[in-house]
Design goal:
single chain, alpha/beta, Rossmann fold, 2 domains, 6-stranded mixed sheet, binds adenosine-5'-diphosphate, binds magnesium ion
């Protein structure tokens, strides 16, 4: 595995055992490489195995075959990983600040006050540390989840459709903010989405998955076509997203190419 590689996946297979004794293959021989600092979007239809793949990469679940190697930036084999979900998964009985602090070293939590305040400010929640999650909007709760994911300065950040429950205006703003944070972070990001436009706006590379059992069917180098910094209204983003839409549509034959009369 080269020094530039953060994640290397080979021949990954995942099968779920069903209650009737049958098995469901969720991932079939997935190969994937992610470079240090790279922003990769996993794009695929619902049920194709995106969450399964993230769960395996992050160690939340075990594969039935294949290998996963993840390296930290300094080449360490014990990389720091963060995971963000579609919902914020904040602890309702803890303040916003304590939810962020929670992931840090348990001793001397007070010494982290400045860091917690810094990250709340970075996600646009300066002064809201004393609030409780229920006092925040869904978008603000997701901002807290971003702060919690980043305060440990991960080598790799896994994100599973983190903005899909938000209204489009909020989601769009948060995508732009995420890119600004990522530029400062020097972290690799693996971001799951079923939204080709979102993937195109965010990614260096879009890895397109087939309907289940998930396989990787296309690897689109967005960075070659759409320079950064990006403007979501740039027609280049929309044009490049059509490539991703076609990659999706050609595999499942479904109406994902809506608007072109398929
Ligand atoms: P995606 O995130 O792309 O929507 P998932 O990874 O959640 O897809 O699921 C992939 C496939 O595996 C789907 O067919 C889903 O029903 C199945 N699956 C996911 N988790 C389980 C589980 N715990 N037990 C059985 N089947 C599962
Ligand atoms: Mg999913």
């Amino acid at each position: 595995m080269s020094d530039a590689t953060a994640i290397r996946v080979r021949d990954l297979v995942k099968t779920y055992a069903l209650s009737d004794g049958e098995e469901r293959m969720a991932l079939e021989n997935v190969d994937l490489d992610v470079a240090h600092g790279e922003f990769v979007c996993l794009l695929g239809p619902s049920g194709c195995g995106k969450t399964t793949l993230l769960n395996l990469l992050s160690g939340l679940d075990r594969a039935d075959g294949g290998t996963i190697d993840i390296r930290g930036r300094a080449g360490s084999a014990k990389p720091v990983l963060s995971y963000m979900f579609q919902d914020s998964r904040l602890l309702p009985w803890m303040s916003v600040a304590d939810n962020v602090r929670f992931v840090l070293d348990g001793r001397n939590r007070e010494k982290h006050d400045a860091d917690v305040a810094y990250w709340l400010e970075r996600v646009g929640l300066a002064g809201r540390g004393g609030d409780y999650p229920r006092q925040l909007s869904i978008g603000q709760q997701q901002r807290v989840a971003v702060a919690r994911a980043l305060i440990i300065r991960p080598d790799v950040l896994f994100m599973d459709e983190p903005f899909s429950a938000l209204d489009e205006l909020t989601a769009s703003r948060m995508r732009e903010e995420l890119l600004l944070l990522w530029e400062d972070l020097d972290a690799s990001v693996v971001f799951v989405t079923h939204n080709p436009l979102e993937a195109t706006f965010l990614a260096d590379r879009i890895v397109v998955m087939s309907p289940g059992p998930g396989r990787i069917v296309e690897d689109i180098r967005v960075a070659d076509h759409v320079p950064r910094p990006r403007d979501p209204d740039d027609p280049k983003v929309w044009e490049a997203s059509r490539v991703a839409v076609r990659a999706l549509g050609s595999r499942d034959g479904a109406a994902s190419d809506a608007g072109e009369g398929t």
